[in-house]
Design a protein that fits this description.
The protein is of the alpha/beta class. The protein has helices at 3-19, 57-65, 79-88, 124-130, 218-233, 256-259, 281-305, 330-333, 348-351, 378-386, 400-403, 460-473; strands spanning 32-38, 67-69, 72-73, 134-140, 159-163, 176-179, 182-185, 239-244, 312-318, 352-353, 355-358, 367-369, 373-374, 414-418, 421-426, 429-434, 440-444.
């Protein structure tokens, strides 16, 4: 990090904290902040992390013009709590939402939405909005139904377009989406997102699969609204864009012309592991990842056309590890390499996500870092970039100096919890604790990144240290009790 960059970043952060003002600089100098969040994507499914079968030229370009982080963690290994941790800067021991919770079912007319954020929740969107940023969320929400206080327009976003309900996002050819608080029809028939091939259907006949696609592809509509938001607002005020694409979360139902871009040996998927059948599941998955990449390119181009790309802190990441179901093939794409497990697991494979950042003049081009970071760091980091006062009680730390090539920040341990397990990382060591049984595992990540060799019996003092740290990090949440540790409340 050069001296000028260091002084600028330090000055923004110090001024904001000292004055509590909305901005430490003029509106025109404050950067746009764009966060593109893929859904269920491993780092190793991207070219810049070594993927050979899936093409991701736009994300690879971001990495070439900025920085790639080898170790970035999500706040939780599933969708809604991961987003809660990201938007609030709180880990799962303090977060409001600690697991997926469904308000309804998949049937037509079922109530939409997941567990809602509370009224007035301190989100990064609300903080930037109050500082003069124009805020937009596009894609998948999952933190409160359209008739609750958790909906995005009540949590700091001026503009929302996409799926309010993450369950609804299992279907890429929906009958409706949400524009702010308005339900907007989409020209598609009702297609249940979880089906199996009918008895007697030919799994090799393309016509067999036409029933699983409609006329209007939701990602086309969502990216168009994000581009419109940029075109209407860029240059008038700084932008915060949270582009939470539902891709490449299954079902594997992209348009056929996008699937045609790939040619792999295939075995048709009949739907038996959930979601929709697919004749060419490998090519469909690769096409969905490439579609995410194309959307990154379109957002960048829209900013470039408005003369705003060079003044944009642009981050690409994912909400949790790659998935295990719906016809996907992790082994074929070497999606987790040697990491243990995947989505919904509290081991490394469930929590590791890509992190690529571009910010000309601040982030050195072509750099990369092996220093661990996580999504909980984004709230204080965005505050520092915008010159906005940072709340005192956050679990993340400002990583702007690290992004600029400086030293790693001092931080408390990384902490996770999910259903009945806790996990913690401090330095090179990682603990996994099973609450009901009391079993604790200990791993030394530099020598054992795949978490195969449990060293707990060899280091009892270190195990006890980790247990104390996990106990201190956990605050009971009656809505999401940690099984085996907290008392479950009566169901309402």
């Amino acid at each position: 990090m050069n001296r000028r960059t260091f002084l600028k970043l330090t000055g923004l952060a110090v001024t904001a904290v000292a004055t509590g003002c909305a901005s430490a600089s003029t509106t025109s100098e404050r950067p746009n902040i764009v966060l593109v969040l893929a859904d269920d994507l491993s780092p190793y499914e991207l070219g810049c992390y070594g993927q050979k079968k899936i093409r991701t030229p736009n994300i690879d370009r971001l990495a070439a013009e900025g920085a790639r982080f080898d170790v970035c963690y999500s706040a939780c290994p599933v969708c809604a709590p991961s987003r809660c941790g990201l938007l609030t800067g709180l880990h799962m021991g303090h977060a409001q939402v600690r697991n997926n919770w469904e308000r309804g079912a998949f049937e037509p007319g079922a109530k939409e939405g997941q567990w809602p954020l509370k009224p007035g929740t301190d989100t990064i969107a609300r903080r930037l909005q109050s500082a003069g940023y124009r805020t937009g969320c596009f894609g998948k929400w999952g933190l409160g139904g359209p008739d609750t206080d958790g909906r995005p327009t009540l949590q700091g976003f001026d503009r929302f377009y996409g799926y309010n309900c993450q369950r609804h996002a299992h279907q890429y050819w929906p009958t409706h989406l949400w524009s702010n608080d308005t339900r907007v029809p989409v020209d598609n028939p009702v297609i249940h997102p979880h089906q199996r091939l009918p008895k007697g259907a030919d799994p090799k006949d393309p016509k067999t699969y036409e029933r699983y696609r409609g006329r209007a592809y939701a990602p086309d509509l969502i990216i168009a609204e994000a581009e419109r938001f940029i075109n209407e607002n860029a240059g008038q005020s700084p932008l915060f864009i949270f582009y939470a694409t539902p891709l490449p979360h299954v079902g594997l139902t992209p348009p056929e012309n996008e699937i045609d871009a790939y040619d792999f040996p295939e075995t048709p998927y009949d739907g038996r592991a959930g979601y929709a059948p697919q004749r060419r599941p490998r090519a469909a998955y690769a096409a969905m990842v490439s579609r995410v990449d194309a959307e990154v390119g379109r957002i960048a181009e829209a900013l470039r056309a408005k003369g705003q790309l060079e003044n944009t802190l642009f981050i690409f990441s994912g909400d949790n590890g790659t998935t295990f179901n719906g016809g996907t093939d992790r082994a074929f794409f070497d999606a987790t390499r040697n990491l243990r497990e995947c989505k919904a697991s509290i081991y490394e494979g469930g929590l590791r996500v890509p992190f690529v950042v571009r910010w000309p003049g601040h982030v050195p081009a072509g750099s990369h870092s092996s220093t661990p970071i996580w999504h909980v760091d984004l709230y204080p980091t965005f505050c520092a970039a915008a010159g906005v006062a940072t709340p005192a009680k956050l679990d993340g730390v400002n990583i702007l100096p690290l992004l600029a090539g400086g030293a790693a920040p001092k931080r408390p341990p990384f902490y996770w919890e999910f259903v009945h397990r806790q996990a913690l990382r401090e330095g090179d060591w990682r603990w996994v604790h099973y609450c009901p049984s009391g079993k604790t595992e200990l791993y030394h990540l530099p020598s054992d990144p795949g978490e195969r060799k449990n060293l707990a019996a060899q280091y009892p003092d270190r195990v006890a240290h980790g247990l104390r740290l996990m106990q201190a990090a956990h605050t009971p949440n009656p809505d999401f009790p940690l099984k085996g540790l907290d008392t479950a409340p009566d169901k309402k």
